[in-house]
Fold this protein.
Amino acid sequence: MFDFRLAIAEMIVNQTELEISEISALIEIPPKEDMGDYAFPCFRLAKEFKKKPALIASEISEKINRTMPEWLEQTKVIGPYLNFYLNRGYYASLVLKTIFSELDDYGKSEIGQQRNVIVEYSSPNIAKPFHVGHAYTTILGQAIGNIYDALGFNTIRMNHLGDYGTQFGKLIIAWRLWGDEAALAKEPIAELTRVYVKFHSVLEDQPELEDQAREAFKRLENKEPAEVELWQKFRDYSLLEFNRLYDRLEINFDNYNGESFYSDLIPEVVEMLETKNLLQESRGAQVVDLEEFNLNPCIILKSDGTTIYASRDIAAILYRDRTYDYYKNIYVVGLPQTNHFQQVFAVLKKAGFAKADQNIHVGFGSVKFKDGDFSTRKGNIILLEDLLDQSVAKTKDIITKNNPDMSKPEIEQTAEAVGLAAVKYTYLKNGREHDIMFDWEEILDFEGDTAPYLMYTYARARSILQKANFNCVEFNNFDFTLLTEDDEFGLIKNMYQYPEVLIQAAEEFEPSIMLRKISQLARNFNRFYHNTPILKTEDINLRQARLALVFAVSVVIKNGLILAGIDPVERM
């Protein structure tokens, strides 16, 4: 699409010694609508021109006005700024024709050039309940992967399962002592959790179990068949449970290579670090000193010779580089793990690994609930499935009350879609480093900054189009230049900015940037809907143009929601 910022920069660059990239970076969006659409701060040129910024702005304005391009309505000098007012009809025609041509692809691009981007997310621990904390990485990682896909990167989605470590020695011993095969087949995670909790509850009276667990894990690392068979059983049962949740949430992965997958590669890590004389002994353990990075030493091998998270993560990075030659390797993992990733990346940097800086930790906050706002059947652990079920149930009550004519199957289907969307949006909307506070009244509000509000807005737009029997195929016959009113122009500006915010969301690993634009578009659409006649417009050409605008809004809202992992519904 035509780049207005670049076009403005090209008009200014001829009159200054600055590079066009410098000028483009300086161009701002004015804080008020009556100040135009773009503004250039001329005080940046005062030193070069040896004149007051207002005078510089006036001189540049005069030169531009002599050969005004068709896309520009006028320029104005406002203090030290030169402000640019776009030709609204030209702008509307350009943006809407682009949306009608691209439809579901609007906002997508090929800037990624099919470079490989690995996104590691979800990564739950085998044999443990999938709780609301796991949902943060799962939903955030899926959205980040979707955005990178949309920008033309080859996104490789990895679920780095927590399927290794000393806890499996404990689980193996616990299972042999107290495991129930029938219970495992019926509720695998619940049964594995039961025996694991029991192991810890009896440790005080039976401390010898700790040594037995360490020995069991060592046998697992040595690939002794009995231990491997049990471990595989726990892993398979756990994946069945996890995949049931992933299917419900429409979460997908390209592989499930967990910690165990990389355990055989640890010797390569040790050899690399030994070759570079980076390994030191500390209390029997093998570590890398990171004092130059202001970090504590990174343990590579524990005193008993077993591996640790850091060594397995380093092995994973070496494997991923060799296998995928990645452009970026992104870890969507909670903020409490920041120090861990700093250590891992610092070890790689110290070892001279070429792609050390292409590994990125995308951290996120914690999940909290308003007092008394959540009931759980599992004590203090709030299971994701319980959260989803409650969201769907509460949504169903609202939809049933508001839509007495809706059939029961449609209510069920709509409640599932909106209820899941409400949870996903809550995880994504505020910025990933913020803690989330779940408040049912807030997240299911059909008039707030929520998924139900966005989905209702989309459904409203689709309803208008259905009533009008709108046919988008004939868009070349529409006169988009008629769309010059403030509310219309505001919507078109929102939609023009959508591809830009997708790129920004990818650069900052922050889907909330995209969702804020979609939310703004929805609010502006509802204002347009209340202020402007659409179906009752007497001028047939204006009516068609406004219907086309409604259609374009529905396309952009839908595209944004889908990237967030949300399926919009046609009726609510």
